[in-house]
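User: I'm putting together notes for a lab meeting next week and I want to include a structural view of one of the chains we've been expressing. I don't have a solved structure, so I'd like a prediction I can at least talk through. The sequence is below, exactly as it appears in our construct file.
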Amino acid sequence: MPKINGKYRFSYGPWNIDEGSDPFGPEVRKPIAMAKKFKAAKAMGFQGIQFHDDDVVPNLDTKSHAQIMKEARAVKRALDSEGLKAEFVAPRLWFAPQTIDGAYTSNNPRDRKYAIDRTKVAIDIKNAIEAQNMVMWLAREGTYIREAKNPRTQVHQIVEAFNIFLEYDPKLRILVEPKPNEPVDSAIISTIGHAIGLGYMTCDPARVGVLVETAHSILAGLDPSDDMGYALAHDKLWSVHLNDQGGLKFDQDKSFGSYNVRRAFNQVRVLEEYGYGRNGEWVGLDVKTMRTQKQNVSMKHLSNSLNTFKKLLDKVATLDRKLEAQLIRERDYEELDRYILCHLMGVRY
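Assistant: Thanks for the context. Below is the predicted structure for the 349-residue chain, given as structure tokens.
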């Protein structure tokens, strides 16, 4: 058996099993209870669950802190009963009426305060379910009209908020998940480079890392494996969200490798060559069910994506490194290109 260097644990979020609604049509499947999603995770070979704060405690803005903690502890017991771990909690700051104009960068100071207070509650939820990390997808931190906000001020507002959170919880680790657009026209923290630079501006850069999502890198016109490698060079790649994307359009969250197998191969390769997971990092999937899937097969995208990762991990492990090195020495990249294609297609080289 080929040697595997990494140590892989897999997670997904409950939103990845959805009802199929989109901006142009209603739901086409029935909701699935959280407990059933937990059981499915274990059965498919996942070890962890990703959460938004209101995945753990629905309608949390209407509840007391004591009630929020009670419901969060109940979710922790449900995870324990299935032998699952919580990978992270992310504050869902893009649905609230107070965050129409952004959360930490809103032009309304009362709404900025709401976002900070809501995030503190999310940190408490994170601790109650014993997740180490908080993911920050800065969904509405940006502009629809550039003149509406000062770009320098926005960066400092986000740093100020992060500093509050880092001081609120001395064990907190923040993972910034950048995306260049959608829902806003232009995000202020749009790429992995922006996210890493943001972390260095905080009061404790050692506790601020990044999460690379395949589709978000592609939407920025970048290669996900390059983004992963850049983050690894900074020792800041603390999680990944693997999926796929058919070009510069809306965020599709297609099954991993379903659009571009070679691009998927290079993501697995950069993780494996680093020995990803040895420091507790997770491999997260963020893939959505096709709207056309019927109720009884609405989880295939998760098992398929996990299987694709494992198949590509085998392709990485069985790559002929001597031949690869020889072709690189000879600068015969056309031949290297042919070898990689043959290897991925499983045909004789």
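A couple of points you could mention at the meeting. The longest strand covers residues 85-90. Residues 16 and 288 are 5 Å apart (CA to CA).

User: Perfect, that's what I needed.
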